[in-house]
Amino acid sequence: MRGGTELIGSELLNGANMKVTRCQFRVPIICYILLFPVLICALFLTVQPAFAEATQPGGPVPQKPDNSACLGCHGQPEMTSKFPDGTLVSISVDKVDYEKSVHANLSCQVCHTNLSGYPHPKNSASNPRDYTMQYKDSCKTCHPTQSSQLNDSVHARSLQTGDKNSATCADCHEPHKATKIKKDAQGKISDEDHAKIAEVCARCHNTIYQQYAKSVHGKGIVIDKNPDVPACTDCHGVHTIQDPTLNKFRLGSPDMCGKCHSDWRVMGKYGISTNVLNTYVADFHGTTVKIFEKTHPDEETNKAVCYDCHGVHDIRSVDDPQKGISIKQNMLAACQRCHPDANLNFPDSWLSHYIPSPTKYPIVFYVNLFYNILVPSVLGGMAIFVLTDIYRRIFRKNEETHPAGGLK
Amino acid sequence: MSIEKQNYFTRFNVAQRIEHLLLVISFTLLAVTGLVQKYNTAWISEVLIDGFGGIELTRIIHRIAATVLMLECIYHAVYVGYKMYVLKEKASIVPSIKDGKDAIQVFLYNLGFSKHHPKMPRYNFAEKAEYWAMIWGTLIMGITGYILWNPILSASILPGEIIPASKAAHGMEAVLASVAILIWHFYNVHLKRFNKSMFNGQLSREEMEEEHALELEEIENSPKLLRPTDEEIRKRQKIFYPVSAFLSVILFVGVYGFVLGEQTAITTLPQSPVRLNVFSPQTPSPIPTRKPTPTPLPSPTLPPQAAQTKPVVATSLPVAGAVTWDGEIGKLFSSKCVACHGQMGGLDVSTYAGTLKGGSKGAGIVPKDAKAGTIISYMEKGGHAGTFSPEELEKVRAWISAGAAEK
After folding, report:
1. How far apart are CA A404 and CA B119, in angstroms?
2. Contact A350/B164, CB-based, under 8 Å?
3. Helices within A64-115 (DSSP H only)
């Protein structure tokens, strides 16, 4: 390394030799240029052993750590370990997968700090879940943002209340296999990775996943890998997942659905109306929900939001012959969940996201038309009359003769 | 009565003024609590809704004000009925052709096209227009309000579409009424001249001349207004009281039905606590477990991929040097075992002494006894992470049997 820098230095000083030396040292120079920002970063992030190790000052490329000691045993498949509760778990790490993973440059002990030496120190975990929990804070060192986001999430909260089934980092991101999530320049996740999200959540939320997989959104993901349909995280968030039973989530949900359903660039492809949110907000339920969202975001309202009628994870196409709510009976069933006495006339009280026209909901259309004519006519007439009175009182004050006796 | 000198004229009695006050309060509350709902996105609406204590409370205030207005309407009907039927007073609020003519004449007079301001009766055209607009508006608001308050009952008789239609009408009518009050009522009785008759009950002679010249003439020219005799009044009261009581009861029942007829639309059922089965893990895939192998087979038991990536385990060392610890055996141990059984603690086979000593389970090797010692027994049992190839194991056995020489 030192030799290299000296040569760069002499190159700058000695212009005559420049051509030759550049040819000889092109590759190292590029490497150093590339390495320089990495080293600078490493200086600032020296607290992170991962980066410190990855950028050893001797070589232009990060050197892989020597994990052969651990992989000597754990690299073999079919390695198992039995916990005191009798659960048998695999303790194998696939070396090939590991070296392809985003953590390939980390030595095992960066995370497994408690596992130096062999025989390994005795571990207090009595079952696999306890063991996983021992590592729940390991990721924080290198991933502080995600870690603090997770701390605000429903997963962390339910863990605090003692539910050990709550997801920690490793439950979603398999640490020995996780590859880098592919994102484009705008940070949008690749279609391929987007389509895999639901499978990750399904590990713990399988019942919901089964419903979702049959829904109009889930089918798009499972069958077509369509990036337009929402994966779990598009509605629930990624690390900051909030409790969806909270009032706040409920009140914010129309905007959440509206984000895609008001976007003609997405909806246009499928011939879906983009008026769904504004027609909802114009109606009683939507108005109330929006007011609540603004004035009392943490309070409960029983007014319907999108998913009360359309379903939550099992959202079907409105034309679905079994459950689609464009079929009046299905819509009535949705109404009756809150209004049990509603009869078959009642669903028509909701304009089904249509804007009234002479063909769709004509009564509403003509009532509006009537008032759109009546209100300006009456108010305009009154205003004109008042203006003439003002005119007389200001400009014709002195002409006031009234032989009829009405005015003095 | 010396009429010539009278400068103030009683226009509204106390009962009428209280009625007006009730109307002012209920109308204003209805208008404000209603319009903030119609224009709920405006910042002023947000402020007001918050001020009323949230949207639900705003709606409760709206409904209370509506109830007050409905009761006031019943009272007004009875009151007007009494005056019309029992006292036989002139129906001075009923519009006539003259009102139309007056309106046109005032309009022309204002613009200077007419030299004469009309002489107007007790209720002039502007007041009649306002009164009947009020009646019309209250009827519309009452009917559409009923439908909105009791949508399920309404939809059981009428098409469901009547509900959004009512909502449209209710809102637009509210705008019409409120703005009309601001333009017409406020201008005519507050701005152009502050008319205090609703507060003190009186109008001045000047006001009477301008607005009710005809009434003034009538008062002054026929001072003795025809009033029925007490006997006539008593006779009519006997009919009026039971009839009006009966009709009032019906109307009260109507208001009761209006207010309490249907509860589901107001409260609705509580959101059914559908607790999803949130945590339902997938069945874990079976753990790949090592099959017991009776003899220490060489690395081909490993999958080819693993074998490739672990050449240390898979390949035999080239035989070099004498069969001693310092010669061949030590190197074999360091390449195959020391990764784990080195300086980390426990069994340490990086040195000859450590190998002899063994770990927690006893001596590693026992010189001259190739069947004793933990190392050989582990290797023979199989299933250990690192293994010797059969040739290597044979070599180690031979070395032990020969005395396990260090040098």
Report:
1. 7
2. yes
3. 68-74, 95-100, 108-111
pLDDT at res. A386: 94
| Cβ separation B117–A406 shorter than 8 A | yes
Closest residue to B155, CB basis, from A79, A343, A386? A343
Residues of B in contact with A114 (CB under 8 A): none
pLDDT digits (tens, 9 = 90+) for A118-147: 778 888 889 989 999 988 888 998 899 999
Tokens of B322: 């004498």
The ipTM of this complex is 0.74
With CB atoms and an 8 Å threshold, state whether A76 touches B305.
no
3 state SS of B9: strand
The β-bridge partners of B123 are none
Mean pLDDT score of chain A: 82
Chain B's closest residue to A245, CA to CA, is B275
When scoring B109, B136, B215 by the number of chain A Cβ atoms within 10 A, the one with the most, hence best to mutate, is B109
Distance from CA of B320 to the nearest CA of A (A): 24
CB interface of B with A, residues 15-74, below 8 Å: 37, 40-41, 46, 49-50, 54-56
Tell me if B183 and A388 make a contact (CB, 8 A cut-off).
no
The predicted-structure confidence for B43-96, as pLDDT tens digits, reads as follows 999 999 999 998 989 999 999 999 999 999 999 999 999 999 998 888 889 999
Residues of A in contact with B213 (CB under 8 A): 404-406
Contact yes or no for A203 and B270 at CB 8 A: no
- Encode pLDDT of A263-316 as tens digits: 999 999 999 999 999 999 999 999 999 998 888 888 888 889 999 999 889 998
Calculate what percentage of chain A has a pLDDT beyond 90: 43
DSSP string across B271-319: PP-------BPPPPPPP--PPP-SS---GGGS-HHHHHH-HHHHSPPPP
Whether residues B276 and A347 touch (CB distance < 8 A) is answered with no
Q: Tell me the Cα Rg of chain A.
A: 34
What are the pLDDT digits (tens) for A341-385?
899 999 999 999 999 999 999 999 999 999 999 999 999 999 999
A99: nearest CA in chain B? Answer: B309
- The length of chain A is 408
Contact A175, A103 (CB under 8 A): yes
Residue recorded with tokens 């890998």: A225
Q: Do B288 and A92 touch (CB under 8 A)?
A: yes
Nearest CA in chain A to B359: A119
Confidence of residue B232 (pLDDT cuts 50, 70, 90): confident
Where b means 16+ CB within 10 Å and e means fewer, A281-316 reads: bbbbbbbbbbbbbbbbeeeebebbbbbbbbbbbbbb
B332 touches B396 (CB < 8 A):
yes
Decide if A76 touches B, using CB distance below 8 A: yes
Cis omega before residue A119 (within 30°)?
Answer: yes
pLDDT value of position B327: 81
pTM assigned to the model: 0.73
